[in-house]
From TrEMBL:
Organism from which the protein derives: Marivirga tractuosa (strain ATCC 23168 / DSM 4126 / NBRC 15989 / NCIMB 1408 / VKM B-1430 / H-43)
Transmembrane segments: 21-47, 275-301, 328-353, 373-393
MacB-like periplasmic core domain sequence ranges: 26-154
The entry's keywords: Cell membrane, Membrane, Transmembrane, Transmembrane helix
Name this polypeptide is given: ABC3 transporter permease protein domain-containing protein
Membrane topology: Multi-pass membrane protein
Amino acid sequence: MKNLSFFIARRYFLSKKKKGFINVLSIIAMVGVAIGTAALVIVLSVFNGLEDLIRSLYSSFDADIKISLNEGKFFEYDDELQKAIEESEGLATIVQVVEDNVLVRYNDGESVVRMKGVSPEFVKNSRLKNHITEGQLKLTEKEQNFAVVGQGIRYDLSINSRNDFLALQFYYPKNISPGRTNPSSMYNSGILMPAGVFAIEKQYDEKYIFVPIRFARKLIGKKNECTSIEINLDAGVSIDQVQESLQKDLGDEFEVLNSDEQHASLLKAIKIEKLFIYLTFSFILAVASFNIFFALTMLALDKKRDISILYAMGTPIKTIRNVFLKEGAIISLSGALTGGLFGFIICLLQQEYGLISMNMASAVQEAYPVKMIASDFIFTMLTISVITILASFKPAQVAAKSVEIQRL
């Protein structure tokens, strides 16, 4: 029989005549592999969901592509630079940005915040519209300027966007030289009425205030300079192609980053955590495979008589060794498929119904996000296959060795 080793292994696995202890060990081994597989699939899917959630939060605040200097802070947005950028295809909006720290006062409160001055194109195609919790996304109206503040700053300074009598006061230090005695000559100042409040995520809500770029330039003392250029692309346009084209046109003086590269350190940290989680659970699966080792060893000792009969009938030692290798494969594969299916069902229920909550008042999403990726299932199965081979190899050698002793 061509698949004799698999046939015998399957019979051993399904046989009701096996010794009770060996049967219990096999079941424990299978359950251990199933639990480890399900846990690994679920945890990896949660990390995938968190990574997607972070990307979606960033996409609400950051542009598809950001252009800034490799060295230095301010650069002039002249006609030559504008032409070089606009020659690229698929650009939906080009937003000039002036960004720096400023002191803001409102009523009796004050705080150092990150002021982000943006050109009018920002409002036209801004994803921030979906995160306005109070007032509206408005930076200019006729000749009047307005500010849109983060929700954390709003709570910190007790800002009321409906109060037309209290304005935000902005202060930015000048180049201070020795001998100045008048405090008012050491800083630039300006006032804006708050038009709206946005809420995305804590690190943005407690840090940023959006203002018109003409106000930001006047406050900082710049004319046509920018700290960065933010570009949003049309739907379906390849970000990588546009990024490569812009980097080639602008040269090494400028740094052109896509949305992921703007937060490379955080996304890299998530990937490293995911890798360590994978390694940790792989170790747990390896520990669970000791049950496979013990079950196969006991089975090899228990089936010495069967092994002798098979050998006497002319069965090759290689086939006898394969019986136990495939027995281990059947145990682990049964556990892996059961655990994989269970993990898939749990993740599917979490996606649809949000069974497990984050239990965080400041969480941007109530339930843990999950995202299943085929590669996670594939790597999990490959890991289990390697562990199974290693765990089954010694018992298979024990069976083959008993045959060799009989032959001598």
